[in-house]
């Protein structure tokens, strides 16, 4: 009985040491969680309720929902996992944690791929039939199905694994870690599972690179044409739009007066639509690049851990273990940084945030209803325009 009590006390002490060692990782995750929760809530409000209905607002809102799942469920679970570094004994909680992590990440990948395809079709194939709002909803629903299909093996391969932990004085106790199973009969399947994940990631990354390369090339060519065109020239103009249906306008303009008002309005509208297209494409390109970069360390370390085998903590120094834990959670960067990307490229989203903050501050400060009503009307007018950018 005394031996059991001594072992339990030693295990608790060893776990406390590991948890303290993981403090930098926990702080890092806590910062990402707070930033991601606040930022993505505003993204959902703006693109889900304030912005006009379009395919791109629906896609951005869906990505933000996946990011909210990561920041609101996955990251808190990960912090708990780090605090219970060698005392995580609940296998069911472990399986649910890993499933949610995979589900949110894969869902985001699916939406980013769908957005890239939509961008390619609208910009490089503007005269073809485009994705409408209803089809975009179906595409977002398909991402949920794909995420579940890709994520369900986590219920098989992840569990609370018994591990032997050695103290500094050489005494060994048995703890539990939430990780992939170490049973030999699953080793081959686990290797295939992780290799399939890596292969899928590489294929999707290549597709994204190719599609955005073609889109970027087309935008550069179009920009050159717009720059070379003269207001008085006679020709055909094609407007690249972000509406729920593709709108390709062919306008033959024959003018003799450069001050003709309808011609100036048409040119302004075309330039405006092109600017909107470029901005949205740039937003999704940056988000895609950040996603790929943030996901690479996680996948690489995952494969290395499977190939290495055994209890990985024994093979690493304290600093190496901290770096390893950072790398395993690198993909959370994407979920927290996305709202900042929207804010950097989208001036209307920045204005929306500023107005929302002002409204909240006025209400908490007890400013009169007239002032609050004026700010709220300003917010409504700002987000009721034809462009979200």
TrEMBL record:
Residues 253-268 have a biased composition (Polar residues). Residues 39-342 form the G-protein coupled receptors family 1 profile domain. PROSITE patterns: G_PROTEIN_RECEP_F1_1, G_PROTEIN_RECEP_F1_2. Keywords: G-protein coupled receptor, Membrane, Receptor, Transducer, Transmembrane, Transmembrane helix. The chain crosses the membrane at residues 25-46, 58-79, 99-117, 138-158, 195-215, 282-306, 326-345. It is a multi-pass membrane protein. It is found in: Membrane. InterPro entries: GPCR_Rhodpsn, GPCR_Rhodpsn_7TM. Residues 231-268 are annotated as: Disordered. Pfam families: 7tm_1. It comes from the Eukaryota. Belongs to the G-protein coupled receptor 1 family. This is NTR2-like protein.
């Amino acid at each position: 009985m005394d031996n059991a009590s001594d072992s339990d006390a030693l295990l608790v002490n060893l776990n406390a040491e590991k948890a303290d060692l993981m403090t930098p990782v926990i702080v890092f995750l806590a910062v990402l969680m707070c930033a991601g929760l606040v930022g993505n809530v505003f993204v959902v409000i703006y693109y889900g309720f304030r912005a006009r209905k379009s395919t791109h607002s629906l896609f951005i809102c869906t990505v933000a929902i996946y990011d909210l799942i990561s920041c609101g469920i996955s990251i808190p679970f990960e912090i708990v996992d780090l605090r219970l570094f060698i005392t995580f004994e609940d296998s069911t909680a472990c399986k649910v944690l890993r499933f949610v992590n995979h589900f949110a990440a894969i869902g985001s990948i699916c939406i980013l791929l769908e957005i890239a395809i939509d961008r390619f079709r609208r910009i490089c194939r503007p005269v073809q039939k485009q994705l409408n709002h209803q089809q975009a909803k179906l595409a977002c629903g398909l991402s949920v199905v794909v995420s579940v299909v890709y994520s369900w093996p986590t219920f098989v391969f992840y569990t609370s694994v018994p591990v032997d932990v050695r103290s500094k004085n050489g005494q060994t106790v048995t703890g539990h870690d939430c990780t992939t199973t170490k049973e030999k009969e699953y080793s081959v399947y686990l290797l295939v599972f992780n290799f399939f994940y890596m292969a899928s990631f590489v294929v999707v990354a290549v597709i994204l690179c190719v599609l955005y390369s073609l889109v970027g090339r087309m935008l550069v060519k179009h920009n050159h044409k717009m720059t070379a065109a003269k207001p008085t020239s006679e020709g055909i103009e094609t407007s690249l739009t972000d509406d729920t249906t593709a709108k390709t306008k062919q306008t033959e303009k024959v003018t003799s007066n450069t001050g003709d008002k309808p011609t100036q309005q048409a040119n302004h509208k075309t330039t405006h639509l092109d600017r909107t297209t470029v901005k949205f494409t740039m937003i999704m390109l940056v988000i895609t690049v950040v996603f790929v970069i943030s996901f690479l360390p996680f996948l690489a370390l995952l494969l290395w851990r499977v190939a290495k085998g055994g209890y990985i903590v024994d093979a690493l120094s304290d600093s190496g273990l901290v770096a390893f834990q950072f790398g395993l959670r690198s993909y959370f960067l994407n979920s927290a940084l996305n709202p900042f990307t929207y804010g950097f490229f989208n001036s209307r989203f920045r204005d929306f945030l500023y107005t929302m903050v002002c409204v909240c501050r006025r209400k908490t400060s007890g400013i009169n209803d007239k002032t609050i009503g004026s700010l709220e009307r300003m917010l409504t007018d700002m987000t009721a325009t034809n462009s979200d950018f």
